[in-house]
Structures are given as structure tokens and as C-alpha cells.
């Protein structure tokens, strides 16, 4: 196996390949004679493992994630558009904020559709939405309190949904960077909506917050974690468990997010 030819070929499509390998080169250079022989013998295995991890995601799996994200952005942008068109959904003092949020979500939709098209993938069609969730929220477009509760649920879902798919985008740094940029904005939206509702900008435990309808509890499942990367954070920090849960935001799996979104898709 010509390792250097492989690296050269990868360099043509990934200019940062040497940065990915730099730590390994430094480790090899510190070995003695015997160590170097062992290292060279292990290179084919190490290279194969590294490349599978770094480049293993197929373009089809990335497209699946982008179409999944697009469906969520459709949901959010349509929710805010319909809310702004309704006469009693949004209090006057919050209208300008939600106009901005709607425009942000529309920009996300346009970006994701264009990204998919650039990959020769057909963007997912926009679903038909029922924001009453089959009658569970009958006053969503006439009661500002209900509208705000759903806005919080959607934004908190969006934050956790993007986080849950980051690992599936590592093979495409451009797409991963853009997804993280969207994730950050969703977090800003969520924090402001929560503050408008008189809550903290972050989530405590798996609590959905005062005034949130029971069906939204699925959005907060798993948020009560205090173990991070196998580290008992309250134990090592001396910080109380409720505050530790606020300090770390948990991802949601794709299946969990789809279950939440499907409540509002006809």
C-alpha cells in the first residue's frame, strides 16, 4: 500500500489532511528504533480506522440529515408565518421579534434547499402542517400564550436536533460549519422565547417550564443528565445537580425529533 499516494490523493479533496495527521507524525517522531518499526507496521490499520472515521459518512447520509433539517426549518418558518398572519397569535410587543425569527428560518430553508441541489439531491417537499396538532392546541393562532409555548417547544427541539446530527456531518466541514451556525441561532431564538415567557434562557433538568402543555414533554426528555463523557460533573465540580443540567444541553435523536414533528404534520 502506497500510503503517501493515498494521502496525496486525499489532499486533492481535503487540504486539511496534514493537520489531521500532524499529531500522529509527532508521536511517530518521538519513538525509538523499535517503536518506529511497530508504528510503521500499525500504519495500515491506523490509517484505515482514521479514514473511515473522518471520511466514512456518505453523501447520501449527509443528504438525509440535510433533508431532515429542512423539514424542521419548514415547520418553524411556516409556524411563524402563519402566526404573523393570524390576528391574535402574537402580542404587539413581540411582533418585530417574530418577524425576524421567521426571516431567519426562511433563510435556513433557502440555504438547505440550495445545498441539497448542489449535491444533485432533490430537497424534501414542504409538508402540510397542522399546528393545532389535531386539536391538542386549538387556540395556537388566537392565544399568545399558546403560541409562545409552541414557539419554545419548536426552538428547543431545533437546538437539540442539530446537536444530535453533528457527528453525521463530520466528513463535510463546510456543511458541518453551516449546521453549527444554524444551531447557534436556534439557541439564541430559544433563549429569547423562554425569556419572553418569564423563564430562564436555559433548561433545568427535564422541566418544560411553567405553562407548557403536557404533550411538549417529549422535547425535554433526557435533559436531566449530570454525567458528561463518563464524568460525574456534580461530584468533580461541587455544583448542584440542577445547575449542572443547565450547564450542558443534550442532543435529541433523529427518531425522537421526527416523533415530535410528526404531531404537526398532516
UniProtKB/TrEMBL annotation:
InterPro entries the record matches: Ferritin-like (IPR012347), Ferritin-like_SF (IPR009078)
One Pfam family from the record: Ferritin_2
CDD domains per record: Ferritin_like
Parts forming coiled coils: none
Highest taxon above the source species: Bacteria
Residue ranges of the TM segments: none
Protein name according to UniProt: Ferritin-like domain-containing protein
Organism ancestry: Bacteria, Pseudomonadati, Bacteroidota, Cytophagia, Cytophagales
Amino acid at each position: 500500500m502506497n500510503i503517501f499516494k493515498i494521502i496525496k490523493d486525499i489532499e486533492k479533496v481535503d487540504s486539511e489532511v496534514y493537520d489531521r495527521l500532524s499529531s500522529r507524525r509527532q508521536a511517530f517522531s518521538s519513538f525509538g528504533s523499535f517503536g518506529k518499526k511497530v508504528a510503521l507496521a500499525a500504519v495500515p490499520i491506523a490509517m484505515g480506522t482514521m479514514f473511515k472515521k473522518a471520511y466514512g459518512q456518505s453523501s447520501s447520509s449527509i443528504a438525509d440529515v440535510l433533508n431532515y433539517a429542512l423539514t424542521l426549518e419548514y415547520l418553524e418558518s411556516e409556524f411563524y408565518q402563519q402566526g404573523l398572519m393570524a390576528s391574535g397569535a402574537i402580542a404587539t410587543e413581540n411582533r418585530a421579534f417574530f418577524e425576524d425569527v421567521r426571516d431567519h428560518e426562511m433563510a435556513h430553508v433557502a440555504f438547505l434547499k440550495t445545498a441539497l441541489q448542489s449535491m444533485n439531491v432533490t430537497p424534501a417537499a414542504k409538508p402540510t402542517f397542522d399546528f393545532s396538532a389535531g386539536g391538542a392546541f386549538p387556540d395556537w393562532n388566537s392565544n399568545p400564550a399558546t403560541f409562545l409555548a409552541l414557539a419554545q417547544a419548536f426552538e428547543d427541539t431545533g437546538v437539540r436536533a442539530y446537536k444530535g446530527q453533528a457527528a453525521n456531518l463530520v466528513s463535510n466541514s463546510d456543511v458541518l460549519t453551516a449546521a453549527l451556525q444554524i444551531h447557534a441561532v436556534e439557541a439564541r431564538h430559544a433563549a429569547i422565547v423562554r425569556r419572553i415567557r418569564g423563564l430562564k434562557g436555559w433548561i433545568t433538568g427535564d422541566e418544560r417550564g411553567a405553562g407548557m402543555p403536557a404533550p411538549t414533554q417529549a422535547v425535554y426528555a433526557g435533559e436531566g443528565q449530570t454525567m458528561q463523557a463518563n464524568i460525574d460533573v456534580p461530584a468533580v465540580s461541587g455544583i448542584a445537580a440542577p445547575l449542572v443540567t443547565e450547564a450542558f444541553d443534550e442532543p435529541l435523536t433523529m427518531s425522537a425529533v421526527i416523533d415530535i414533528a410528526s404531531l404537526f404534520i398532516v
